[in-house]
Queue: 2 jobs
Job 1
Amino acid sequence: EENKPIVVTTWQFVNASAGAWEVLKNGGTSLDAIQRGASICEEQQCDGTVGYGGSPDEHGETTLDALLMDGKTMNVGAVGALRRVKNAISVARHVLENTKHSFLVGELATKFAVEMGFKEETLATATSKQMWKHWYNVDNCQPNFWMNVKPNPNKYCGPYNKLIQNNDIYTIQLTREVNRYNHDTIGMVAIDKNSDIAAGTSTNGAKFKIPGRIGDSPIPGSGAYADNTVGGASATGDGDVMLRFLPSFMAVEEMRRGALPSEAAHVAIRRIADYYPEFSGAVVALNKYGKHGAACHGMPNFPYVVYDTTEETQQIIHVNCN
Ligand code: SD4
């Protein structure tokens, strides 16, 4: 009756999922599986939205957010806006295991990581520098996406494009295609052979964010949540909005009162959409019996990956968002 071990992963991060499954198959814990899976994405820079070299902030710096939650002890380890350390999920694991705290942020999280033996190095790459340069020259001349301010029409907007002012409306000719929600943040939920449940996330957050910004991913109950007595969930999408609703917590609580995983995920997504019909995001949920489901909004469909004993290879499940 119980489907375990099992791991579910947001988007089509199949290498990460396979890595997590390898751990579970060999009798490892759900925490180890998620740390392994997310680490693979951090190393492989999954879709440029996990790990170093992606999503530079307004100053061109990449910072990392990660969360690991243990549903057996209800203990949490998280880092937000982690600077100059590539292994965000592993630093989160150290917060979980080696401290009585739950959440470390910014420069001081880096200091902790270095004390724990992690290597300090730049997270910038040629790609992230190029992305930043392009944004600085082009997108930066639009009204700031993250702030309620208009651009200065007299400002130098780089060689690419020209800012056009028409009464109160500022426009700019943009050649670049902006696709902010294309395969993002890794989120995972796993159950190991002992029925212990864990959930976690790793991301480099939102592109060209205001320095210091963290999204939903490292927030317990928002980016992920796990409770051995019920199950776990993980969310991805427009983090600034999503973190206001704790969708992963909500999905777990819905399952606690009897909802199926797909229904629970749907309730969490629906709640956000009621207030923000324009938001884009998804929630994947897994109950303690190993049943899984997902719901999404603001995109045509949402894929997630499942590895369990019933399949020889991974299943990729596409959830219709309408
Ligand atoms: C963030 N939630 O930092 C992340 C980004 C993401 O799909 O998951 N996008 O807002």
Job 2
Amino acid sequence: MYEQSLKVAVIGAGMAGLLTARELKREGHRVIVFEKSISLGGTWVYDPRVETNALGLDPARQIVHSSMYRSLRVNLPRRLMGFLDYPFSLKEGGDPREFPGHEEVLRYLEDFARDFRLVELIRFGHEVVRVEQVNEVSHEWVVESRTRGSESEMEGEVFEAVAVCNGHHTEPRIAEFPGMDIWPGMQVHSHNYRTPEPFQNQIVVLIGNGPSAHDILREISSVAKEVHQALRASDVHFKKLENRNNIWQHSVIKCANEDGKVVFQDGSFVYADAIIHCTGFKYHFPFLRTNGIVSVDDNCVGPLYKHVFPPCLAPWLSFVGLPYRAAPTLIIELQSRWVAKVLAGKLALPSEEEMASSVEELYQHMKESGLPKHHTHQLQQNKFDYENWLVTQLRLPPLEEWREEMYFHALKKITSHDDDEYRDTWDVIGGCKDTTAC
Ligand code: FAD
């Protein structure tokens, strides 16, 4: 093994970019973080603006990065959201709740960046528009960026490695159904949802069943006339939710008509005013030029060894933060440590062939299990295997058992209609206020 200090570009100053910058700095690399906006924190910087194209279909639209809604409170307890060596603890004057509002996460990231002297590494207002390897032998990468205020001027700079940390909650994925173009009501993706007021007294169809779908459904049901949730699950049939005045569940949308009618696959229908697509996001790397070596196919970024390194460009190009349906903070922290140590020469990767066959094995396994390609980076039940694999690579002590218990406990609550108050009643459920139990 050898040890080396490289000049590394990090794209994005959200949670992934900040953690990656810290780890790279710790390992002695020279780091520059490119951040297109004027502040750090990425997703956690609430932006009241919405995009001109509410479904996010127009590639030329003015893009708003964050998908935060005004009322958002975190959906995992703060003990699971803190970094391993920098707990997300209560701060004077902060939001003391176990599930604080989004402002508290931003404050935490700002404190983290200040305490580890990361702010001075960030070039704010620099949007990366091109990342391309210009010399395969010396592993040189050009990173071209344009600066806010002088959009026509491009700056190019050469680096030895690039870590992509640009986030994946900005480019909407929408549900498609016959008639969606002629249906006359308002259609909006959750990316452009901020507050419930626009849905006052409306009949709303909400598509989706993830964490944002549940939050938004609860919130708009307090102002809307009726809310109809369209779900993919095969066992869902038309029903009114118990203990709710105005929420119904249906199967997926079959079609929508010019007269405002929305027909569901279970035969039920409703004349609605609005459809909200809470249907997730697409990975998007408009700046990346790899001659097809890395591509996004049906929302699978690949090929990537363990969701991080493209085998034939490793370790000079890496992606941090792609997995979802997991506690993002821990995954990001472990991945960023791995990247920094591999680049420093302190940890070795398998050969290119071995990494490529590991990726093939994953694809084959998914195929045999009947999993669609777009689930490639969804960890869910595999979350702990993946985390433990990274922990072993990094030679860290095993993760505490309470993490798994707490995560699955929270997951059940996030998408349940039975406990709207779980964030506030958490202290008395699952014994989790008692740290010896967790
Ligand atoms: P981001 O935070 O999106 O940061 C990416 C950064 O890259 C941004 O600052 C962006 O401006 C910058 N960037 C993008 N493109 C470029 C470019 N070309 N050039 C330069 N800079 C660029 N996680 C939890 O743990 N708990 C929660 O409760 C939770 N709730 C969530 C709720 C919502 C609505 C959403 C959308 C996500 C939520 N998450 C939650 C997940 C959250 O996204 C992650 O916790 C984490 O913040 C992701 O960080 P990131 O750095 O990968 O991406």
